[in-house]
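Posted in: Structural Biology > Protein-Ligand Complexes

Title: Requesting predicted complex, NAP in pocket

I'd be grateful if someone could produce the 3D structure tokens for the following input. Sequence and ligand are given below.
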Amino acid sequence: MPGDARAYKLPVAGEWVEDARDIPVLDKYTGEIIGRVPVAGRALLEKAVAGARAAFPAYSRMPAHRRASILGHAVQILERRREELAELICREAGKAWKYSWGEVSRGMETFQFAAEEARRIHGETVPLDASPTGEGRMGFYLRAPVGVVAAITPFNFPLNLVAHKVGPALAAGNCVVLKPASTTPLTALCLAEILEEAGLPPAVLSVVVGSGDAVGDWLVGDPGVAKVSFTGSAPVGEAIIRRAGLKKVTLELGNNSGTIIEPDADLDEAIPRCVMSSFANSGQVCISLQRLYVHREIAAEVTRRMVEATAKLVVGNPLDRSCDVGPMISESEAARAEQWVREAEREGARVLIGGKREGALFHPTVLADVRSDMKVMCIEAFAPLVSIYAYERFEDAVRMVEESPYGLQAGIYTRDIRKALLAVDQINAGGIMINDTSIFRVDHMPYGGNKMSGLGREGVRFAVEEMTNLKMVVIKP
Ligand code: NAP
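-- Reply #1 --
Done. Output follows.
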């Protein structure tokens, strides 16, 4: 029903602009067009960056309490528009209602943390006389905003991953040009409206929509941008770091997350958590559980209970309040997941449940008899599929989790503190969750990956650190 779709405008350099060239945004379950969004050309992108640069001197000098109060006001408006935002996420991302609602709560919390952080960005004194050369001088450093932050975001959390860039950038006094994923730009545009209503001065935030290859690439290469903050896939992350040159860059990339279950684990707690971790948002979470390592002694019981719990999941329309698993972002992504599962089967894996596709819906899938070199194990799946691998020795399971080229988060269920600490020591990842799966995250903890999972950290305070430059002041009386 193209006629019913809302025509959106882009907030660029303080104006809401339209363009004859636009892209349709689809409801990922029904396929209906729910919005049409102008595509930014090169001139519009350059206008957005120039507008942000022009707004920077005044915004970066706005007192911290005023920046905090704009961000705090945005939280109140998010609360007021909560239902509308949850529905937008549900429809444009295909995310089940309960997780869409949860994402709005998290987005509010991320902005609340940003509002609080705005008031406590500070440096410290440096005892210069620790060196004979520094005797008689006084030194301290400040944290100064970098300038224009280019924020490039993926489709899977259209509100909260935008909040993780825009919130800290604005808290620190930066201006932002945001490029959301082409499949899910509507929530980001709604957020721009909210920030405008909250009192953000014109041109401090622009939103440009268009393909990553064009608009994303121009933005990363634009000399007016001081910092690129990117969340998305590893291949795009690598292309961005090459293109960015000497700009500051933060990369939040993917993972093929592993979790280990030892025989002493509380299975009543672990199994529902593993099922949720594998299938929430159709497995399209960067810390979704993909590789489940289970001790041989409990492998049969864990496998049976995982399959039983998976069979109870409600798959279908994400707007349905009881839905657990909605569609994937596109039919082609679901077809890719299906091919991976068929390939694993040809290589000897067994599909215990799922493996079926209806359009963009890929049914929650549990695999057994997998090998470490199968695609479903060694590459990020980003789909509702989990592979169970039975191990003999805890040390081997830790080694297999660690052998991944990625290093975002991992989980270990055990009551044995020595085993837990061995995993903490041996696994090179940004986060190790003891008695939880890889999926645990709250929005103020340092979050990010090592190895192919990225560079730098988010989590509001840590993102602020990445979006500010230290400025050292030395005073010789
Ligand atoms: P993606 O394909 O890498 O796209 C992410 C963003 O980058 C989109 O806005 C995309 O634009 C843009 N882009 C694409 N090519 C570009 C280029 N050459 N230059 C600049 N920008 C470019 O990722 P996705 O499929 O949306 O998201 C899934 C990935 O994100 C997974 O790998 C997942 O693990 C990762 N992720 C990581 C985290 C984390 O915090 N570590 C969190 C969530 C997701 P278009 O939409 O126009 O292509």
